[in-house]
Each structure stands twice: as C-alpha cells, then as structure tokens.
Amino acid sequence: MAGNDDINATVRSRLRSLRLALGWSLDDVAARAHLSASTISRIETGKRTISLDVLAPLCRALQVDVNALLDTSEDDEDVVIRPLPTTTTGRTTWPLSRPTSSTFAAKVRIEPGGPTDDARIHPGHDWFFVLSGRILLTLGERQIVVGEGEAAEFSTMTPHMMTAIDEPAEVLTLFDSEGQRAHLGGFT
C-alpha cells in the first residue's frame, strides 16, 4: 500500500508544481479542465482521491501526458549528452538532444561559401540562435541577416535556407518533430 501512497504523493506534487510553473491559479486550471477549483485544491492537498475522471482533464489542461505524470521509475540513465560531430560539406553538426526527444537540438557550424542548397519547405517550425558570426536567412523572397546574439523563429512552410556571411558562423538550433524529420538528412 505504501507504493500507491508514494505514487499519489508524486502525482499530487507534480500537478501542483506544473500549475505553479505555468503561473496559473486554481481557478485558471479549473476553467481549462472543466473542474471546480475546490476539487483541484483537494486533489493537490490529498483530501480527495485521484481518479481517472479528474486526472485526464487535468493532464489536458496542464499539457502533460498521463504516462509522464505517473512515471515513478528511478531512471539512472546518464543525463549528460556527449555530442559527436558530423561533418558534411560546409557544415559540422553536434546533436544536443537524444534521438528519442520530441525536440531536436543541435549546435551547427556553417562555413561561408558552403553548399547553397535550394530553399526547402516542410511542415513544422524552426528556431535558431546565432552564437558567433552572421547568418543570411532566406525566407521565401526575403533575405534577413541574423547576427551574433540574435535569434530567429519561423514557420517552415515558407521556403527557407541559411548561409554564413563572410566567416564561419555557429548557431544553436531547435526543431520540432516535423523539422527534425526534415533536417536529419542534412541541415538546411
């Protein structure tokens, strides 16, 4: 029985922590979950049992998967990622996330005069931050210079490509799952 009590305590703590991390009041979550604020308060304080009929709407409201909320496994997996670079003509990529991650993060060094692939289009969303150098971002007919310390975020349904200007540039980039599929074959 102690195992169930531990799981209940963990779930209650996670629900409250997620709510607070989002900056939401009990009323905010109640409106999103279509539950009363008092029900949520009683769940968080342990005065009400956690049942599936309230857990599912709470997870939807807090944008968390039920499995992630209930996972109490003690995973000793090494949390440090030791990226190994992959080099193609004009680009070196260091993957900074695990292959199973829902978001793909990478550091990319782009050499000037590297391959100028045709602009690509694919479902998804891309984001990058320029660590050093300057990037020429082509979005459709627009050309935008993104300098060191600046970031860009854009829909990938617009034809896009990146090139370094004058000297090598390094970027930190994030792709959603759609962008990850499109870019794993080569960063464009």
Gist of the model:
The chain is built from 6 helices and 9 strands; from the N terminus they run αααααβββββββββα. By secondary structure, it is an alpha+beta fold.
What's the domain count? 2
Radius of gyration: 22 Å
**N- to C-terminal distance:** 54 Å
Output the structural class: alpha+beta
Please report the number of helical segments: 6
Average pLDDT = 83
Helix content: 25-40%
CATH topology of the largest domain: Jelly Rolls
Main sheet: which strands, in order across? Answer: 1-2-3-9-4-7
* Strand tally: 9
Described by the principal axes of the CA atoms, the overall outline is elongated
Query: H/E order of the elements?
Result: HHHHHEEEEEEEEEH
CATH class of the largest domain: Mainly Beta
Main sheet overview? 6 strands, antiparallel
Unreliable spans are none
The named CATH superfamily of the largest domain: Jelly Rolls
CATH architecture classification name of the largest domain:
Sandwich
**Beta-strand proportion:** 25-35%
Structure description:
The protein is α+β, with helices and mostly antiparallel strands. It folds into two domains: 2-70, lambda repressor-like DNA-binding domains (434 Repressor (Amino-terminal Domain)); 86-183, Jelly Rolls (Sandwich), CATH 2.60.120. Helices cover 32% and strands 28% of the residues. The chain has helices at residues 2-21, 26-33, 37-45, 52-62, 66-70, 177-183; strands at residues 86-88, 91-95, 104-110, 125-132, 134-139, 142-147, 151-155, 160-164, 169-175. It has a six-stranded antiparallel beta sheet with strand order 1-2-3-9-4-7. Strand 2 and strand 3 (104-110) form a beta hairpin. Helix 2 packs across helix 3 and helix 2 crosses helix 4 (52-62). It starts with a helix and ends in a 5-residue tail after the last helix. 18% of the residues are buried.
